[in-house]
Design goal:
This protein is α/β, with parallel strands linked by helices and 327 residues long. Helices cover 38% and strands 17% of the residues. The protein has a single domain, classed as Aldolase class I (TIM Barrel), CATH 3.20.20. The chain has helices at residues 2-8, 13-29, 33-36, 69-74, 118-127, 146-160, 185-202, 218-229, 266-279, 294-302, 312-317, 320-326; strands at 45-47, 50-52, 56-58, 79-85, 98-101, 106-109, 133-138, 166-170, 208-212, 235-238, 259-262, 284-288, 307-310.
């Protein structure tokens, strides 16, 4: 299996991703997945009103369309977040748009919310066999601006809220033009108010999170936290990728546009968690960004995260990382 994983990495990034996930899917259908990737024995936890098998989840971006929920769930994750999904299917940004930096355990991506659209995801959510917690990360189509952009979030919310266990509102991708402007005061308040209106309309009682950027100033972070504390949101997911690539050792990648994830993001994302908890000790935080080892996993928890997600660590190290983090 290790040889196969190494061979997969030889292919272009997006092809490697597709081959790897479909290989996992085949193992799942053949009931062989636990032969290669034993499911870890873990202690159940209850957080945000959800019962989870453990504190480790897969972050949005790995399974954008919900095509691999069951095989990923079989690996032993406590929860799975699918998406980012948008109302309409879109191709995303031109290729090449993923750059793997293996010697630094890092990835730069500028995918741009490529996905099959929310209706496709809803069908996958309805058919899933995985009984664990599944969240949906919602976003806006690239061409939407102003009120249309807010309407995109509302459209996704309406369609997925019955079929998932929590929702994440993603305002932090650096790869959709001006999306991060939603961190700004007036824009954020308009978005939160609009979503709260929908929460009340459908009597939504499940958790809802705001996924934020690691590149915000202290002043911006304080405003975001205050707005979330005063809203019906359950907490924050910290963080998305960073546009700052100063700590990359390989200078060939420093000028690339896109979001940096993986080990170079670990300290920055973790510091954001610490800052959040210093500003508002009681706010709930799901930590994500740079988790490559069991030590990283526990550092996120010790810094104040209630739960932890992985993305780049899974891509670089493969499914075996689940057992390594939870053993």
């Amino acid at each position: 299996m290790n040889i196969l994983l190494k061979l997969i990495k030889v292919f272009p990034p997006e092809l490697s991703h597709t081959i790897a996930l479909n290989s996992l899917k085949i193992l799942y259908f053949l009931n062989l997945i636990h032969l290669f990737f034993p499911k870890p024995k873990t202690q159940k936890v209850s957080l945000f009103g959800m019962d989870l098998a453990n504190k480790l989840g897969i972050a949005a971006g790995l399974d954008k369309n919900g095509d691999f929920i069951d095989p990923l769930g079989a690996l032993g994750f406590g929860f799975i977040e699918v998406g980012t999904i948008t109302p309409l299917a879109q191709k995303g940004n031109p290729k090449p748009r993923i750059f793997r930096i293996f010697n630094e355990n890092a990835i730069i991506n500028r995918l741009g919310f490529n996905n099959k659209g929310v209706d496709h995801l809803v069908q996958k959510l309805k058919k899933r066999k995985f009984s664990g917690v599944v969240g949906v990360n919602i976003g806006a189509n690239k061409e939407s601006t102003g009120q249309d952009r807010i309407n995109d979030y509302l459209s996704c919310f309406r369609k997925v809220h019955e079929f998932c266990d929590y929702i994440t509102v993603n305002i932090s991708s650096p790869n959709t033009p001006n999306l991060r402007d939603l961190h700004q005061s007036d824009n954020l308040i308009d978005l939160l108010n609009a979503i709260e209106g929908e929460i009340k309309k459908v009597n939504f009682v499940k958790p809802i999170f705001l996924k934020i950027s690691p590149d915000e100033s202290r002043e911006s972070l304080e405003f975001i936290i205050q707005a979330v504390d005063e809203s019906g949101f359950s907490g924050l997911i910290a963080t998305n990728t960073t546009i700052n690539k100063d700590n990359l050792q390989n200078s060939n990648y420093k000028e690339l546009t896109g979001g940096l994830s993986g080990k170079p993001l670990m300290n920055k994302a973790t510091k954001t968690i610490i800052d959040i908890k210093n500003i508002s000790p009681n706010i709930g935080v799901i930590g994500v960004g740079g988790v490559m080892s069991r030590e990283d996993f526990h550092e996120k928890l010790n810094s104040g995260a209630c739960l932890v997600q992985i993305y780049t660590g899974f891509i670089i190290h493969g499914p075996k990382i689940v057992n390594e983090l939870l053993k």
